[in-house]
Write a structure and sequence with these properties.
The protein is mostly beta strands. Helices cover 7% and strands 48% of the residues.
């Protein structure tokens, strides 16, 4: 399942476009330091860091270039309620990928502080929205603009370390490939080349969205290959993402080439999250995780260095179960792909998934469940609950895309 967090915030009464967000915040690294290193967890192709909000926490935040405004987005929870955030009274709606384009009403609090490692951000904003339907419970919210707008941000996937550097005096890592980026509002875009089948490569101008777990999503003139299959592509902040999923012959980025890349082709209504124009598509962490990436917004470049997982194959779910997490931490089969291993084995929509190969789903977590169901040829035994009955099924995973 793909997760896409790309979002836009709108202030009524003009919901048709994102406002020009001023940034009253004060951001600084600990006295005398120009760099801070922050450990992160890599879960379901997302970078997650711990932060304290108004001195409380820690809160687990997903790092996202698709968060186009300063501050933090938080999902409603008991811990967030204890923050006692005061609504500023601003009429704010937040829209993201999937669902409709109406967006969700958000509380906006001013004068919030955020501490991440040796970095302190004061006098910033927090947006609070309901926990997105179907999302796992491992992330408490999203942060992006507050880091990317002010610092050079290096995501070292090999060391599982986030490095924030003040732009002044910073030097690029030797030997890194430099890929131009353009900033449009709070978003950044880059160009890559896509070869569909045997056709000549075509340039795609795409938004860079590290909060999205997929490798690449293409819009508009890029038609899905004939072998692509219709399926739920994942979940965004605004709901389900629907469309087709298939493999393209080659994707080229910054002088690097990848073959047999799994690409999503969203239905037209889901190609522009929040109603924004995201041009030819969306480059996600499923491809970028193959690099140690440095984002230098001030220098208008993204720097790529091969990571250990550079040659890992591109894979998606091989069970045929589209899963949905509920707020109580339970995991349910929301949809079954006809003819898939899980469907043939007898699993049905509405079954509650309890364990995989004897490991409870809460112990596996969203990342563990995801990885367990995308290993070609692996046999999996799952324990389910259907109504009041406990059931067991076994099936062998195979590529569906």
């Amino acid at each position: 399942m793909m997760i896409a967090l790309l979002l836009a915030a709108f202030l009524a009464p003009a919901p048709a476009r994102a406002p020009q967000h001023s940034d009253p915040s004060i951001s600084k690294i600990a006295e005398g330091a120009h760099t801070t290193r922050i450990p992160f967890r890599f879960v379901a192709n997302q970078v997650r860091i711990d932060a304290r909000v108004n001195g409380q926490g820690p809160f687990c935040l997903t790092l996202d270039t698709g968060m186009p405004i300063p501050g933090v987005l938080l999902y409603e929870s008991e811990a967030v309620t204890k923050l006692g955030l005061s609504d500023s009274g601003a009429n704010v709606r937040v829209a993201g990928a999937g669902g409709d384009k109406q967006g969700t009403k958000a509380l906006m609090a001013e004068g919030v502080s955020i501490d991440i490692g040796a970095l302190s951000i004061s006098n910033t904003r927090a947006l609070v929205v309901p926990h997105p339907e179907g999302f796992g419970l491992g992330s408490d919210g999203v942060i992006g603009g507050s880091l990317f707008f002010h610092y050079v941000v290096r995501i070292d996937v090999d060391a599982k370390e986030l490095v924030l550097c003040e732009p002044e005096g910073w030097t690029a890592p030797e030997g890194a490939a430099s890929v131009p980026i353009t900033r449009e509002g709070g978003m950044i875009f880059t160009d890559l080349r896509v070869s569909l089948g045997e056709a000549q490569p075509v340039v795609a101008h795409v938004v860079v969205d590290i909060g999205a777990s997929h490798a690449l999503s293409l819009n508009g003139a890029f038609e899905a290959p004939a072998s692509a299959i219709e399926m739920p592509l994942g979940r965004g902040l605004s709901g389900l993402l629907l469309g087709k999923c298939g493999r393209v012959r080659r994707v080229e980025l910054g002088g690097f080439a990848f073959d047999s890349v799994v690409v999503s082709f969203p239905m037209q209504a889901h190609q522009n999250p929040g109603g924004e124009n995201f041009r030819d598509g969306n480059l996600g962490q499923g491809l970028l995780k193959r690099f140690n990436v440095t984002f230098d917004y001030a220098g208008k470049r993204m720097l790529l260095e091969k990571a250990v997982g550079f040659r890992e194959p591109f894979e998606v779910d091989m069970s045929g179960i589209f899963l949905s997490w509920h707020p109580d931490g339970t995991l349910w089969a929301e949809q079954l792909m006809p003819g898939s291993p899980a469907a043939v084995a007898g699993i049905e929509n509405g079954d509650q998934l309890l364990s995989i190969d004897g490991k409870p789903v809460l112990e596996l977590g969203e990342g563990g469940v995801r990885e367990a169901l995308r290993i070609e040829g692996a046999e999996r035994r799952v324990e389910l609950k259907r109504g009041e009955k406990a059931l067991g099924f076994a099936f062998r995973l195979r590529r569906l895309v």
